[in-house]
Design a protein that fits this description.
24% of the residues lie in helices and 21% in strands. Helix 1 (66-75) crosses helix 6, helix 4 crosses helix 5 (223-230) and helix 6 (272-285) runs antiparallel to helix 7 (290-304). The strands form three sheets. Strands 4-1-9-10-11-12-13-14 form an eight-stranded mixed β-sheet, sandwiched between helices. The chain has a four-stranded mixed β-sheet with strand order 3-2-7-8. The chain contains eight helices and 14 strands. By secondary structure, it is an alpha/beta fold. It has helices at 66-75, 90-103, 169-176, 211-218, 223-230, 272-285, 290-304, 317-328; strands at 27-32, 35-42, 58-65, 80-83, 85-87, 111-113, 120-126, 129-135, 155-162, 180-185, 204-207, 236-240, 246-250, 256-259.
Length: 374
């Protein structure tokens, strides 16, 4: 199965077209992690109550875990390579096909593990929040000297999720081969909140924690002050502040930028953080101004929370175009608070979203599969 590599989709907008050169690596972004089979229930009026049965008005399935980030990157037109273990079961086969064939993600670094079942997460979305139940076992290590066939491939960038006290050798290897490292971080279960415990941070170009994480790691009581302090450790610090938007500091130049959030009705926040990182990474590789990168990342995250699921909800350029053309067509013109999205005019072709090539799938089919009766 490892020979079935996804190809970059034809006809997709390439945000890096102005900066590509013949000597550049063929891979734009490399990432690794655990792929889950996500089962998402939506349309719940409240949290499930013990001893009762709850019916959801909507349901879908999709690859989750690291697949959320990989899908978000691929849908924005980046040539994405994923190294992951896939279960030797129907779930694993579905996730492989959804990512390789449905999203055009390169899985040549991935492998199917005989006798290992896919990790599964059940996510229940209600009241703009989510509750998840997961099950799985760590995949057995592969035979050979390292986890990847080419450890890791040469790439423009790599995405890492930093964990306190955990050394990820591939991060240093990727940085040593010229990749720009973009990292987020999860909640520190140890309670130490020690930046020195994030071993991969020294190799990062950009660090993107949320406000709570940033303030705990720096000891600051303001997210903007936390970002400025983080910029002493990494070239670019980005702090997401929920409904307040996001704030970034470029420690090399001293430039700062702040962009407010777009107000939307959130259906499911699953994967929104991954989508945000993908949007910021895209703008950074495309060499956009700092404020445009924040705006684009915030826009893609806002679009994602209006749909259910993690990888299912990641927007591509058709969704971005539909939103911007909708804003431009408002009777009073583009509202004052959204005029900083004018940079999209230079990216999107024409005056209306263009249809995709015949037979192309904009998103993976949100089910484990229908039988082909043809």
């Amino acid at each position: 199965m490892a020979s079935r590599n996804g190809q970059h989709r034809r006809g997709a907008l390439d945000p890096l077209r102005e900066v590509r050169a013949p000597q550049d690596p063929g891979c734009d972004v490399f990432l690794t992690g655990t792929v889950f089979l996500d089962i998402i229930f939506t349309g719940l009026d409240s949290a499930p109550v013990r001893g009762t049965e709850s019916w959801a008005r909507g349901m879908g399935q999709s690859p989750g875990g690291v697949a959320n980030m990989a899908t978000a990157l691929a849908r924005l037109g980046l040539r994405t390579s994923l190294a992951a273990a896939f279960g030797d079961d129907f779930y694993g086969e579905y996730c492989w096909d959804a990512l390789a064939q449905g999203e055009g993600i390169d899985l040549s670094q991935s492998r199917t593990v005989p006798g290992w079942h896919s990790p599964v997460t059940v996510s229940m979305a209600y009241e703009g929040e989510r509750t998840m139940v997961s099950h799985g076992h760590e995949a057995p290590p592969p035979a050979g000297p390292g986890p990847f066939p080419d450890c890791p491939p040469r790439a423009r960038a790599a995405v890492a999720s930093l964990e306190p006290g955990r050394q990820e050798e591939w991060i240093a290897a990727a940085a040593g081969r010229g990749a720009r490292i973009f990292a987020d971080v999860g909640w520190d279960e140890t309670g130490r909140w020690d930046l020195d415990g994030l071993a991969g941070l020294a190799h990062c170009e950009a660090f993107l924690p949320n406000a709570g994480e940033a303030m705990r790691y720096t000891g600051e009581d303001d997210p903007r002050a936390a970002a400025r302090k983080l910029a002493e450790r990494v070239p670019i610090a980005v702090v997401t502040m929920g409904e307040q938007g996001s704030y970034a500091v470029d420690g090399r130049t001293g430039e700062t930028a702040e962009v407010p959030a777009i107000t939307v009705e959130a259906l499911d926040p699953t994967g929104a953080g991954d989508v945000y990182v993908a949007g910021f990474l895209t703008g950074t590789l495309a060499e956009w101004p700092l404020a445009d990168r924040l705006a684009f990342a915030g826009l893609t995250a806002a679009l994602s929370v209006q749909e259910f699921g993690g990888s299912l909800s990641a927007p591509g350029w058709p969704e971005v175009a539909a939103w911007w053309y909708g804003v431009r067509s408002l009777p009073g013109g583009v509202p004052e608070g959204l005029r900083h999205y004018g940079f999209l005019d230079g990216l999107l072709p024409g005056d209306a979203p263009s249809p995709e090539p015949t037979g192309a799938r904009r998103r993976a089919v949100p089910t484990i599969g229908f039988r082909n009766t043809a």
